[in-house]
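So, could you explain this one?
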Amino acid sequence: MTDIKPKNPIPISSVRVIGRTVRVIPWSFDDADQSQDGEWSDRDGTIKVGTHLDPDTFREVLLHEIIHAVESRLGMSLRENQVVALGVGLDLVFQENPELLRLYG
């Protein structure tokens, strides 16, 4: 087993998704399927995000998994490529318009 130091310690422990508190859990390569950087579990109400990710990728993966959580809460059936596209698109909108996030906070 290789000791992997987190590039980005998990800066957030939970998010609220349409009335449900979702725990955000660090996910090391020792625990994770190495083909995935993140995972949403509706059953557990958790999002796991890889500790090996750089900050930009961490943000993208977290947003992607939040979209899966929203999808679940709203009873939607998005294809994975739709979730990916929404995540990339929203991430770029937030980067290009940081004032949007300040409206919420």
Residues 14-102 form a domain with the Zincin-like fold (CATH 3.30.2010). The first helix runs from residue 55 to 73. Strands lie at 14-17, 20-27, 38-41, 46-50.
